[in-house]
Write a structure and sequence with these properties.
Its cofactor is Zn(2+); Mg(2+). By secondary structure, this protein is α+β, with helices and mostly antiparallel strands. It is built from 6 helices and 18 strands. It folds into 3 domains: 17-148, Nucleoside Triphosphate Pyrophosphohydrolase (Alpha-Beta Complex); 152-180, no CATH class; 182-318, Nucleoside Triphosphate Pyrophosphohydrolase (Alpha-Beta Complex). Helices cover 19% and strands 30% of the residues.
Length: 320
């Protein structure tokens, strides 16, 4: 039995927090140097739905990074410098799929077998990519999505144009400069200090899909205060012993999930928020372990996918 004083930690980094690429901020301002490095660079194309070309290699799924020759003699307009590794620069840019696409994504999606190239999205494939590929794709999805929603200045309404190798946008009217936005959200694994964890489901989720609780941070609110507020709003219980676990980018379109654990009293009746939480219940550690051992599901319980920090939190608590 685990005491509430024995705080668990994440066993491993969340899937989308892995990266082995140097973002190299100083290089973003060196336009001439970037042109010099362009011929040996690699390009990650990304379609408007956030899908990238992937293939199966000897080590599993990998990004199908492209040479720069077909994209011109210099980084094209709208491209983003994702980072560098071992002297090679990596760029992301929008492109139309040049092969079959994975239709849809989410809870029931599966990664197809085969040796050909197929365009797949981050939600489905992020958890099985290498550290390098996961970092590249997460960054590309986040920053290219930001560009797609930031064509006009928030201050004066004039058109903006990309700067700093895609890491800023400059207003052509008032000169204001904007940078990629990240909206913090908390995600909290609530347990009873012993062998039960609190899970809940949204009305729009597939049947039997459950996860831990989450919500966006409001203006003027600390992360810990947000945890306490969101849990009480969503299921009607108060938490204590709030502590930080880890974080993960979640670029759908621009969230940063900040993970916490907290303790609540399982004898307090659960009151799911109307229209937001369809149902919530306490799950025993053995039941959770059964679902994890079966790949993420058991009768009446389907867990979040391996790309999410929620899955990493549940795995870490189950093994503590």
């Amino acid at each position: 039995m685990t005491s509430c004083a024995q705080r668990f930690q994440l066993d491993e980094l969340p899937a989308l927090s892995r990266t082995a690429i140097d973002r190299n901020d100083l290089l973003r301002d060196k336009a001439e140097r970037l042109v010099e490095l362009w011929p040996t660079a690699k390009v990650l194309p990304l379609d408007k739905h956030g899908r990238a070309p992937m293939a199966r290699g000897q080590d599993g799924l990998r990004l199908d990074l492209r040479p720069t020759q077909s994209y011109g003699s210099a980084p094209p307009a709208g491209s983003v410098l994702l980072g560098a590794q071992d002297g090679t620069c990596y760029w992301g840019l929008r492109a139309e799929p040049d092969g079959p696409v994975q239709e849809g994504f989410g809870w029931e999606a599966t990664i197809p077998e085969g040796d050909g190239i197929i365009w797949q999205d981050l939600r489905m494939a992020g958890g099985v990519l290498s550290d390098v590929d996961a970092g590249l794709l997460t960054t590309a999805v986040a920053v290219l999505s930001w560009h797609g929603h930031s064509g006009f200045c928030a201050r004066c309404g004039s058109a903006t144009e990309p700067k700093r190798a895609g890491w800023a946008r400059h207003c052509t009217g008032c000169g204001h400069e904007e940078y990629p936005r990240t909206d913090p959200a908390v995600i909290c694994l609530v347990h009873d200090g012993a062998d039960q964890v609190l899970l809940a489901r949204q009305p729009t989720w597939p049947a039997d899909r459950y996860s831990v609780l989450a919500g966006f941070v409001e203006g003027g609110e600390s992360l810990e205060a947000c945890v306490a507020r969101e849990v009480e709003e969503e299921v009607g219980v108060r938490v204590r012993d709030i502590h930080y676990l880890g974080s993960q980018p979640w670029p759908f379109p621009r969230s940063l999930m900040v993970g916490f654990a907290a303790v609540a009293d399982p004898s307090v009746p659960l009151v799911p928020a109307d229209g937001e939480i369809e149902s919530a219940f306490w799950v025993g550690r053995d039941k959770l372990r059964e679902a994890l051992a079966a790949g993420g599901s058991a009768p009446g319980l389907i867990l979040p996918g391996i790309t999410s920090i929620a899955r990493r939190m549940l795995e870490s608590w189950a093994s503590s």
